[in-house]
Fold this sequence. Notes:
This protein is mainly beta and 167 residues long. The chain has a single domain (21-166), classed as Porin, CATH 2.40.160.20. The protein contains 1 helix and 8 strands. The chain has one helix at residues 2-19, and strands at 26-37, 43-53, 58-74, 77-95, 100-117, 120-138, 143-153, 156-166. Strands 1-2-3-4-5-6-7-8 form an 8-stranded antiparallel β-barrel. β3 (58-74) and β4 form a beta hairpin. It is elongated and about 55 Å long. It starts with a helix and ends with a strand. Residues 5-21 have low confidence and may be disordered.
Amino acid sequence: xxxxxxxxxxxxxxxxxxxxxxxxxxxxxxxxxxxxxxxxxxxxxxxxxxxxxxxxxxxxxxxxxxxxxxxxxxxxxxxxxxxxxxxxxxxxxxxxxxxxxxxxxxxxxxxxxxxxxxxxxxxxxxxxxxxxxxxxxxxxxxxxxxxxxxxxxxxxxxxxxxxxxxx
Length: 167
């Protein structure tokens, strides 16, 4: 009788493992951010990113973020300024309890500044190290939210809240 119960328990456990879903590896998301520039006012931005999670601790992520889109006026002179961020990062994460993950970011970052004024257009690029620290929470197995503080440049600090969709 014991052998039959043990065999039934083993088959039940094996069949449950067969139906268990593998954790999704690819993900994409969107975020909204507030970016503080030393030389400009704080501005609200947005972004999108895609990534691949190798395991519970390591991910690779690429993203585009519009950090600022401002119009400056001084008398009759008007200038439109856009600041964009392109980044490629490695994320190291530590799973915490109850669906929370703490993660750090380290990677390559390219900032592009476009200035458009009557009779003038200027564009400047700057490549720097990007680093950050964030907290993610899995609402479901395929949807998570995250909050991150990031330094795309020594005089730029970005705070972003985003939604991640795993597939």
